[in-house]
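Q: Structure tokens for this one, please.
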Amino acid sequence: MSHFKRILPSLVLAAALASCADTAEDTSPSEALESLSGPGTPTVVTETADESNTKQPLLHLSEELSETELADRISSMQPSIARDRSLRFSDPQLLRADAAPLLLTRLRNGDDKSEVKHALIAALPKTKGQYAQAVLDLLQSEESAELRADLADSLRLSTESTLALAGLKLAATDSSSTVRQRALYAIGHRKDGANLTGVLLQALRDSDASVHSASAKALGNLQITEAFAPLQAGLSNRSADVRLETLRAMARIDGNRAANLSELTTLAEDSDARVRTAAAKASAHGYSRN
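A: Here is the predicted structure, written as tokens:
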């Protein structure tokens, strides 16, 4: 039985290749394998870390689809199963800016399961199209906090600065701490994130430790000089994550001032090993502004 299990993949591949020969000369082995899985069945992505950076699309990018053909393609395409078991769309036709409104149409009007909706939202930045206004609207109407969190994160890579920042400002005050956290993370990774410094400073007062931590980290990433003093209270927060991200942020903003903080003596003996390490690094000017 164990021998049969070992040779089973080879038998499946042989069957697929035989099917190629019987049906059409130009049918590829990958197409034959896809046919064996049945229509609408998500395929398993087996790419390695290195392969993910190569330009080997599942379909030829030279394939030009009309607007109608693209709409039909997106309305019926199925996501793939990634190594982390999440779903994602990998069709290279999504690299077109005009795919964005079609993804949004399916997201708003379709009956997809939640997992597929997550994949649809994750595909929006790939299009490099205009989707920020629609995301801003959905942040106000979507009932699922998990989907709102994904919507906020999609704005991290949006090229529409004004609308993206408006959406993130809204998400940063969401009733869900998960949404607020993801919004702050996105702000901290945008080149124009400093425009929402007021939002980040306000979030330092959030009672949720994950939100407070995300705000401190964002302020450090953006190197907001005026945040140094407001951050300092977080060094004595009961949450180790808050103490850690606060110290790291202050050291990135101004390494010299951070190295002379009176709290470093206490933090050097912190109950959390990460905080102790960060304190030692800050004392030695180990954090860079770059």
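A few notes: The longest helix spans residues 2-23. The first strand starts at residue 80 and ends at 81.
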